[in-house]
Design brief:
Blueprint: H1 3-26, H2 32-53, H3 59-79, H4 83-119, H5 123-155, H6 163-172, H7 174-187, H8 193-200, H9 205-211, H10 214-229, H11 237-257, H12 261-276, H13 280-316, H14 321-338, H15 341-356, H16 360-373, H17 376-392, H18 399-414, H19 422-434, H20 448-473, H21 480-484
Helix pairs in contact: 1-2, 2-3, 2-12, 3-12, 3-14, 4-10, 4-11, 4-12, 4-15, 4-16, 5-13, 5-16, 5-17, 5-18, 5-20, 7-19, 11-15, 13-17, 13-20, 14-15, 14-20, 15-16, 15-20, 16-20, 17-18, 17-19, 17-20, 18-19
């Protein structure tokens, strides 16, 4: 659609809304402040529509602008006590956008992994790339958790919280904590090497596809891809070509869905902010009490994201760090808005292939695996949260217990689903292993969502980093001029 024409239509629509609100004000249906705030909120929404149609500006700038508009809209409607308007009229648009991305995540993992593994045409090469990938994912996760523990031990978050504030936080999150603890106990049933292996192998791959069991889908896709490489002659080529074309088609669906990314991101952020604004006084108290904990998590995430990943890119690849960061910005922004590595996966693949120049032979194998087993940010957060809860509850952790946290959180990250909020369930397993009372998660539930958004950015950045490093080690990264074409 012609952009100037769309701009005129947006202005006309906004003018009609303002006239309607003024008429409602004159009729005494709404107050002046409420009318002004509603007009502003609608204006923000129309601006996000305009951003979706403004193709001349880079996508990451449009997403960033939409994020700011979403925050402004959420704050505006929370000011007039109208969070229900966000829940009923705006948040569903964000849920729709997220569902569109989740809709293609499972087929993308299946098609791209099968095509990626089969195109290697050598099971030894599959094993080599797979070994590098898993080793790097587990290694970076262990480093992230260690950084989290070091920063937490240095800053000691929670040491300034008195018993009154602690009891209030525990009481406010008690009901939700009970639900999470029950879910964690169910998740940890049968945990152990045998239970873990049984959980990876699907008894019915079609049921795994239907229910979105990513680890089982990855196992089935890897096994099918390896089987195709073992077929004699060119017997596998038609099947591999079919899976490759299906993977390409899903990527094209990503391009179509990302056209409305500013609208989706706007709605997601508006919903989160308005939800926090329902009880602004309580939120303010919680944030004040937990400010040290939140700052510790964010500082540790920044250290890992700004030092470890660029260092890996600089030392193990020939890709300029600035080019890498610029390329993955849209995926990072979407990860922050959605809090879901799985939903961001299609965009991550697109950014790494087109922006960084990684060949799809590597990206189609490494990135789906990363969205399933690589949770650097989540593991780091679990380490900091364990120290914080132990400090507040006055539980002294020995060096051995902290090493257990590193090991348990690293292994738990493999089974952590790439969806919002599941990290808190895995945290309970980590707390139990370290001998910290599980009920302590009630202390941090009030601020889990914003921290979930931050750690998902690190998860996605870690996926892209490992993919680039593995691809560079196999000579599968194009130069900047070739990547841009």
């Amino acid at each position: 659609m012609n952009t100037p024409k769309m701009t005129r239509l947006s202005v006309a629509a906004f003018a009609l809304v303002v006239v309607a609100l003024l008429a409602a004000r004159l009729a005494g249906l709404v107050g002046t402040d409420r009318a002004i705030h509603l007009a502003l909120a609608i204006g923000f929404g129309l601006a996000s529509v305009w951003l979706s149609l403004l193709g001349r500006i880079a996508l990451h700038w449009r997403i960033l602008a939409a994020m700011l508009l979403g925050v402004a809209c959420g704050v505006t409607l929370a000011q007039v006590g109208a969070p229900e308007l966000v829940r009923q009229g705006i948040a569903p648009l964000g849920a729709l956008f997220l569902n569109l991305l989740k809709m293609i995540a499972v087929p993308l993992v299946l098609f791209s992994l099968v095509a990626g593994v089969a195109s290697l045409e050598d099971s030894a090469k599959v094993g080599r790339i797979g070994g590098k990938t898993v080793a790097l994912y587990l290694g970076t996760t262990a480093v992230a958790i260690t950084i989290g523990l070091l920063v937490a031990n240095l800053l000691q978050p929670g040491s300034g919280i008195d018993s009154t504030t602690r009891d209030a936080l525990m009481a406010s999150g008690q009901a939700e904590a009970g639900t999470k603890i029950a879910a964690a106990r169910q998740s940890s049933e049968g945990v152990g090497l045998l239970g873990f292996l049984l959980g990876i192998v699907p008894s019915n791959p079609f049921r795994a596809l239907a229910t979105g069991e990513m680890l089982q889908i990855v196992f089935f896709a890897l096994l099918l891809g390896v089987a195709l490489t073992r077929l004699p002659g060119g017997a596998a080529k038609p099947v591999v070509d079919l899976f490759q074309r299906l993977s390409d088609a899903v990527i094209e669906m990503v391009h179509l869905i990302m056209r409305i990314a500013p609208i989706g991101v706007f709605a997601l952020l508006a919903g989160v902010v308005a939800q926090f604004g329902e009880d602004a006084a309580r939120l303010g108290d919680v944030l004040t009490a937990l400010l040290g904990y939140m700052a510790t998590v964010v500082i540790a995430l920044l250290i890992h994201g700004a030092i470890v990943y660029p260092l890996l890119i600089r030392t193990l690849t020939k890709v300029p760090v600035r080019r890498f960061l610029r390329a993955i910005t849209p995926a990072q922004l979407l990860a922050f808005s959605s809090s879901s590595s799985a939903a961001t996966l299609p965009v991550t693949i697109d950014c790494v292939e087109k922006g960084v120049g990684v060949d799809d032979e590597a990206s189609s194998f490494v990135l789906p695996l990363g969205a399933t087993i690589n949770m650097d940010g989540t593991g780091l957060y679990q380490g900091v949260a364990a120290i914080f809860i132990a400090t507040v509850l006055q539980v002294d952790l020995t060096l051995v217990q902290q090493l257990e946290i590193v090991l348990t959180a690293t292994l738990a990250s493999i089974g952590t689903a790439a969806v919002p909020g599941v990290g808190i369930v895995m945290l309970i397993i980590v707390l139990r292993q370290a001998g910290i009372p599980e009920e302590g998660i009630a202390l941090i539930l009030g601020v889990d969502r914003p921290l979930d958004m931050c750690r998902t950015v690190v998860n996605v950045t870690g996926d892209a980093t490992v993919c680039t490093v593995v691809a560079a080690s196999e000579g599968l990264v194009r130069d900047e001029e070739t990547a841009a074409t």
